[in-house]
Amino acid sequence: MAADLGRRKGVSAESLAGFLVDATFAAMQRDVAMIVETGEGQPDIVDTIVHVWTQALYAPTAPSRARTGRS
User: What proportion of the chain, given as a percentage, has pLDDT over 90?
Assistant: First the structure.
């Protein structure tokens, strides 16, 4: 499965990658702070980060003709 950034008009690969890395880093900072303060981290952080990355890179931006049955 490969990302098709061409579907995301106006979004460069560099800016999308930068956003994803920054968002991941911020989530990790919050998780580490939570662990230091409470001894427990965010229970679903890995699943959440994977979901965000997957949606940003691989989710369709509009319904495809095959799925809508329209031509």
Answer: 58
Which residues, 6 or more positions from 60, have their beta carbon under 8 angstroms from its beta carbon? 7
The C-alpha angle with vertex 3 and arms to 25 and 55, in degrees rounded to 5, equals 55
CA 61 to centroid of chain Cα atoms: 14
Q: The pTM is what?
A: 0.67
Length of the chain: 71
Confidence of residue 11 (pLDDT cuts 50, 70, 90): confident
Asked if residue 67 has pLDDT above 60, the reply is no
Domain ranges of the chain: 12-58
Q: For 1-39, give the DSSP string.
A: ----GGGSTT--HHHHHHHHHHHHHHHHHHHHHHHHHHS
